[in-house]
From TrEMBL:
Stated name of the protein: Amidohydrolase 2
UniProt keyword terms in alphabetical order: Decarboxylase, Lyase
Organism phylogeny: Eukaryota, Fungi, Dikarya, Ascomycota, Pezizomycotina
Originating species: Purpureocillium lavendulum
Any Gene Ontology biological process: secondary metabolic process
Keyword Oxidoreductase: no
Gene Ontology MF term list: carboxy-lyase activity; hydrolase activity
Length: 379
């Protein structure tokens, strides 16, 4: 693709790919999550365990659809990713595996699977020099030494720029002290975490009518609340005091965190237990400090109101554009994804006359923070 002269780089930091190696891994499984071919169409579908409606079923239970998410070519073929990028004038994408990542893999297989998936993704990125980078997947069900070994190995993979992680961590959430050595290894390797939700909230939250609204409640509210709670727990446990160099890029503009940070701070300041524990010192590192020093937010929030909150909370130099491709595909099969154009227009709405702010969020922050080589070779 010829580079647009005079246009600043557009970088997508939130864009998923399920490499063929991952699909093959899930196709061998008999339990959820698994991948099968849907015979009538020959398409793959992913049967995952979340998000679900209150009746415990996904939204796709009809005879004309498989019981899960159809993984069309956009989900697994890099040629589709590249044509999506070309069509939407995205110069660079930082790929991440989608949920459920490697969270389900048996302990004894996790190391090999992580290596296979990460090597495959590195290789795919290498086929499009300058245009593709990736966040690696960690073998979180394996022993600590294996997880740390993979972090050290990822550091040596040419196109890896961080790791993608769900909110369960090793199974007990992100405030789990067993994660501290992992956080430390990531910080030492200068690999940020791309924190992404995948489990949603318990189905009961959506009430008996939840399924009548399709996937709207779990995806619009469940995912962002999941991230908000996970990250808040991480902050409250003091992870950023213990590992001050840790950097986390939070999906969906940090969920509700930018909006709720003030209230969270007020709750901390008024909490008897925090006072009794001697934690309300004047030099306490606040959530605002964490937002400005340890947390980056993506721009996948679809409106200027949420995006403004994200920028206000973390700073204009800490918010990075994303699309969540191939999720949010247009229902009519159109080539243009509103998940690109609406999120881009929200950035312009926030910076109607400020090209510097616009360029930072649309690409320059990602290039600087993730060390993405500028420039695109023709492909
Ligand atoms: N976005 C994702 O990344 N995963 C989903 O399952 C849905 C939306
Ligand atoms: Zn996503």
């Amino acid at each position: 693709m010829a580079r647009n002269v005079g246009r600043k780089l557009v970088v997508d930091v939130h864009t998923h790919l399920y490499p063929q190696a991952y699909i093959d891994l899930l196709a061998q499984r008999t339990e959820v999550p698994f991948v099968r071919r849907w015979e009538p169409t020959g398409q793959f579908y992913l049967c995952n365990r979340t998000p679900q409606n209150s009746n415990g079923r996904g939204s796709n239970l009809s005879p004309s659809r498989p019981p899960g998410r159809i993984l069309d070519a956009h989900y697994h073929q890099i040629s589709e990713k590249i044509s999506f990028m070309d069509h939407h004038q995205i110069d660079i994408s930082v790929l991440s595996l989608g949920n459920p990542w490697l969270d389900f893999v048996d302990e004894d297989k996790a190391e090999d699977f992580a290596m296979v998936i990460n090597n495959a993704t590195n290789e795919i990125c290498g086929q499009h020099p300058g245009r593709l980078f990736f966040f690696g997947a960690l073998p979180l069900t394996a022993a600590e030494s294996i997880i740390i070994g993979e972090i050290e190995r990822l550091k040596t993979l040419q196109l890896c720029r961080g790791i993608v992680m769900g909110t369960e961590g090793l199974g007990a959430g992100l405030d789990d002290p067993r994660l501290l050595p992992i956080y430390t290894a990531l910080a030492e390797a200068s690999l940020p975490i791309f924190l992404h939700p995948g489990y949603g909230l318990p189905g009961s939250v959506w009430g008996p009518k939840g399924s009548e609204y399709g996937q709207v409640l779990p995806l619009s509210l469940g995912f962002p609340m999941e991230s908000t709670i996970a990250l808040t727990r991480l902050y409250l446990s003091g992870v950023f005091d213990k590992v001050p160099e840790l950097q986390i890029i939070v999906a969906h503009s940090g969920g509700c965190l930018p909006f709720l940070a003030g209230r969270l701070e007020a709750c901390i300041e008024h909490d008897r237990k925090w006072d009794d524990d001697g934690k309300l010192t004047s030099d306490r590192s606040t959530l605002w400090n964490a937002l400005r020093n340890n947390i980056y937010l993506d721009g996948v929030i679809f409106d200027k109101v949420g995006l403004r909150a994200a920028i206000e909370a973390s700073g204009v130099d800490r918010v990075m554009f994303g699309t969540d491709h191939p999720f949010f595909a247009p229902l009519g099969g159109e080539k243009t994804f509103p998940a690109m154009t609406v999120n881009r227009d929200a950035v312009r709405d926030v910076f109607p006359e400020d090209d510097e702010g616009y360029d930072l969020v649309m690409g320059e922050n990602a290039v600087r923070v993730l060390g993405l080589q500028a420039g695109i070779s023709d492909s």
